[in-house]
Each structure stands twice: as structure tokens, then as C-alpha cells.
Design brief:
alpha/beta; Aminopeptidase; Alpha-Beta Plaits; four-stranded antiparallel sheet; 38% helix
Length: 414
Amino acid sequence: MPLEPSRTVDELRELRELTGDDDGAQRVAWTDTWERAREWLRGKLDGLPLEQTIDPAGNQWWTLRGKTDRAVLLGGHIDSVPNGGWLDGALNVVAGVEVMRRLAEDGEPAATVRLVEWADEEGARFGRSLFGSSAASGTMDDQDDLRGRRDAEGTALPDALAEHGVDLDRALDARSELEGAAAYLELHIEQGPVLESMDLPLGVVLGTFGVERHLVTWRGQAAHAGSTPMDKRRDALAGAAKLALEIRPIAKRAGEGAVCTSGNVVCKPGIVTSVVETAEQLLDQRHLEGETLARMLSEAKEASERFAEEEDVEVEWSRIWRIDPILFDETLIGFADEAIREVAAASHRLPSGPLHDAAEVARAGVPTVMLFVQSLRGLSHTKLEDTKPEHLELSVAALDRLAARTVDHVAASG
């Protein structure tokens, strides 16, 4: 069976019709629509000589046994955000299906190859991203927090998991699935504008950004908006506003790839007739180099202290979450570059701002690489998300060639 990249595009459209509506994709994890998508995926692999299993974290696995038990993993996720795009996540696994078809037809591969569909990459329903992959990597250390999480309707996460056959207390048993894993390959839409701006269809991902995410709380003094002179005010929002603007030059000084975002500010008492007493500001900073990310955070904290003094308010920082930068495997990056140049002539290396399941697999010590395919207008997590069909086909061909190189490398290295 020769590789048919156009079939992947047709199947992605089929999935869109099955699990989407006029507002976009609705494959939110731990819902009936998500389960329908997973059943559809299983059907696409029926008839192939694959071993199919579902691990304790809900991840689906298909295994094609090779001449060595050391395994090359192809992975992605089929869940989406509400009103999401038709390609985010789904491309990863549907392209993987096509590669598995080609490998199975060619007979016993030189190394074992496994396709994995990770459970709940997006975290859209309960706010916990990378659920299945973090369980498999062993980094899921927040199970006490997970037990208390509820969705917008009040359903507890453990109850939702149980409806889909997953016991939260056993989720970490999925760690056994990465035993013997020698490489992990993931294809994804870029979700950004870089490749389109360069008029390139494909790129190689160097790694995923480190992230520093904080709640910055500013405390001033509530006072009447009509009777308090401007120079007598202790306006908490003024400090938050200054920091929101200052993070732009901080990112610029940090160099290419640095991003800083003030995503939300909640003001109290939050009425038009009062000076703001408390402003709670969310700050997200990302970079591929750990030292640069630390410097960005330090500069933001120093700036906040300066602004607090200028506005006669207090400022307090509380870390919400952080993750170190994760660099992908140099050998696999080289293989990916070669695969892309063979199918598309030119390649480009770039970091990933968003996190992916690949980051969790890399954290577990498995050599990892990702391919990006161009996103039109750089849009994702919206029904407007799109990629040219010819670029999607090129991405499937590149993934297949990358998989072939990696299988031969794993087999040769014992």
C-alpha cells in the first residue's frame, strides 16, 4: 500500500463533518463527541496487523511489532477546544494512521512502531492540559488538585474520567508505555504566522518554550472617583497598566522568540465611581532559553517594584505555574530537516510557543522532535484555522520519511 497523503486530507474532512458544527470542532476531551472521534479513529486502523490497547490514563495505542522491541512512537491528540479548528491535534494522529498503513504493508519493520492518541491534550473542560502524556511521562504530580477540579456544570474530574473508563488513582500506571521508547515524532500545525511569513510549507521544531506564569497582585486604596485628586490617589490599576506596557520592551530586549503577555486584570471594587483598590493581573512569559526566561522574569519583577513605588501601592507576586524550556533531540532534528527538504525543497528551524504532548515525552527522556506545517493567517483554536491541502499532503510525506529514517536509526543503534 503506497503512501496516500491526499487520503489524510479526506479523512480530516470526514472527521470535521462527524464532530464539528457551524462554530468549529467540538471534540472536547471526556465528552461523547470526543469518544465518537476516538471510535472513528479506531475504525481507520481496523484490519491492520496492529495490537490495540488503552492505557490507565486513557491514551490509545496501536503497536506494529518490529525486529526489535525498541520503539519509534508517532503521536498526537484528537481532542479540541470548544469551537476549535479542524486540524489542531487531529492532523497529528490522522497523518500517523497513514504512515502506519504504509509501514504495515511493507512487512515487519526494522524496529517496533507505535501510534498513540494522547488523552486530553487541550485541558479544555477541566483546565488541566497534557493529561494523558503527563501521566505517561510520570510528571503528573498534581493528583490532589485534579481530584478537586470541576467543569462549568460542577462535574468532578474523577467522575468524568470514570465515565470513560479511567481511574485517576491509576493514571500514573501509564508510565509503563514509554518503556523501550527510543524516539518520539509528532506532526502539528504551526498555530502561528512564521512559516507563512517566510512562504514555507514546513519547519522543524527546536523545542518548546519554557513558561513562567504568575499572578501579580497590586494593592492600593479605594477612594471616591469624584473627590480624590489625581496626585493623591493610590490606584492599583495604574501599576498593573504600567507593567502591561513594560513587558513589551522586556520581550524585545530578550531577543527573537521572546513573548510576554498580560492576559487579564481583575479590578476591585470594580465600579466606575471608585479608584481601584486591588488589581489582580495574570502574566505569562515564554522563551526557549532558560537563562533568558529567568532574566525576563527578573526584569518584570524589578519593574513592578519601581511602578509600585511610583504609584504608592503594594505589589505581590505568586507563581501559578512554570515549566523549563525543553529542547528536542539534535539527531532527530537533522532527520526532520532532511525529510522536509526532500519533499518541499526548503526547511526552517523554529521554536514552539505552545506546549505539546511532545514536551512531556521529551521530559521523560525519550529523544523527540516535531514537524510544523504552515497555518494560514497564523490562526488556531478557532473555526477559521486552516492549512492549504497541498501543504497538508507535504506534511504527511515528510512525517513518513522522518519515520523511515528514525526506524532505521533505532534499529542500527541496537
